[in-house]
Amino acid sequence: MLLTALAPMIWGSTYLITTELLPADRPLLAATIRCLPAGLLFILFTRKLPAGSWWWKSAVLAVLNIAAFQPLIFITAYRLPGGVGAIVAALGPFVVAALSYPLLRLAPAPRTLIASVFGLIGVALVVLRATAVLDTLGLAAGAAGTVVMALGTVLGRKWGAPQAGLLALTGWQLAIGGALLLPLTLAVEGLPGELNGKNLAGYGYLVVFGAMLSYALWFRGVAKLAPARVSMLGLMSPVVAAVLGWVVLGQALTGWQLLGAALVIGSVVWGAMAPARKAPVAEVREPALVR
Fold it and tell me: Where are the domains of the chain?
């Protein structure tokens, strides 16, 4: 769990890196550069390609975890204050709880459902009482990113890891997702005329830490830990983002926003740590022996 927790801690710094080091208004380019080189490096290192059903499973996970999630999270980073965007993403455990019932036959504990209500109230306090201008597209992108990441987490736990290993699976997802993003990036944003040293440093950080290290740890945790425990660790992302915003950028939250943030964080911890229960299934009887 401690190793897996490093991934959302690293992702919490994405907001700071995006706003301070990357070229403005290029979320698709940031997502593509973050994922495609990292995926190709993993594939070159493992020298393994998907086999059997893992061709389509890898493609589904790549769309959810990379091709869809990455642009959404960068749109959120460009359009929302870091702490607010990350706190919206902290609702992921509740989406995971809802998806785990039909896909994994895991029923959420009652206190998880109660905690989700308080979590939504906390997000409302953060959004409605915010002194900063909160962009509608940024909020929508953050919510959509939370849903697709939760679905990728649940399906990743359902399917487990291939025989090729978790590093290979990480490389497949990053490479496929990055390849899907590349033509969209060229068509919509194109390539920047020039990149300065600050931009290159930001992209380098995203490739090495934001993709290779963090996703290797995250997918390892998804394959080994219960979805509720994995999603609970997403709590570290808004905490890191908020701390960096306060310390580095001097961003301040109002008293109502601080109350809402505390309510969200407390609800996530209290609700996501509740043990999931197997959903009831019909009894299956052994067939009688034919003599």
Answer: 2-273
